[in-house]
Specification:
about 170 residues; alpha+beta; 5 strands
C-alpha cells in the first residue's frame, strides 16, 4: 500500500496537475495506429520531471522516432499504463516543428515489427493470424468478437500485453 501511495503522491499528482492545460512540449513518437487518412499516435515526453506518454490524433504522415515540438492541450483523460507511467490524451494546438532523425532505433524496431507482422499474415489467416499478432506484438485490433470473448473467458488475454519479459530480441 505504501508503494501505491508513493506512486500517487510523487508521480500521479504532479502530472495530473497538468490536466486541462496547454503546454509547450517536445515529444518523440513511439507508436502509430493507422485509421486510414488519420492516425492515433503515442509519444513520450516529460512533465514535471516524470516520464509521461501522450496520445493524440494527427494526419497520417508521422513516423515512429519523429520529434515534434509544439503546444499541446492536455485533457483530463488520464490513465495509468501497466509500465506505471501516466498516459494523457492531448490535442496539438500549434505545431512548431517536426524533426525526422536520419537514424532512429524506434523507427527501425517499428519497421522490423511491421515486417514480422506481414510474414505472420502471409502464413496464417483469420483468428490464427490475429492471435499470433496479439501474442507477439500486443496488437489485438484483428481479434474477432468471438476470439476476444474466448481470450477473456480463458484468462489468456493478458498475454497480449507485450512487455520486456514476454518478448525479447537479442541483437
Amino acid at each position: 500500500m505504501a508503494a501505491v501511495t508513493m506512486f500517487i503522491s510523487f508521480v500521479c499528482q504532479p502530472i495530473l496537475s497538468y490536466s486541462g492545460t496547454a503546454q509547450e512540449l517536445s515529444v518523440i513518437v513511439s507508436s502509430k495506429y493507422d485509421y486510414g487518412g488519420y492516425a492515433m499516435y503515442y509519444a513520450d515526453t516529460t512533465l514535471g520531471g516524470h516520464g509521461t506518454s501522450v496520445s493524440f490524433y494527427y494526419g497520417n504522415d508521422l513516423l515512429e522516432g519523429d520529434v515534434l515540438t509544439g503546444r499541446f492541450s492536455l485533457s483530463d483523460r488520464v490513465r495509468n499504463t501497466t509500465a506505471q507511467r501516466i498516459c494523457m490524451s492531448a490535442a496539438i494546438e500549434e505545431l512548431h516543428s517536426i524533426q525526422r532523425p536520419e537514424h532512429s532505433i524506434i523507427r527501425t524496431m517499428a519497421e522490423f515489427r511491421r515486417s514480422l507482422a506481414a510474414q505472420v499474415a502471409e502464413i496464417s489467416d483469420g483468428d490464427t493470424a490475429a492471435l499470433t499478432q496479439g501474442l507477439l506484438f500486443g496488437d489485438t485490433s484483428g481479434f474477432s468478437a468471438k476470439l476476444r470473448h474466448a481470450a477473456k473467458a480463458s484468462g489468456v488475454m493478458h498475454f497480449t500485453a507485450v512487455s520486456g519479459s514476454h518478448f525479447v530480441i537479442i541483437m
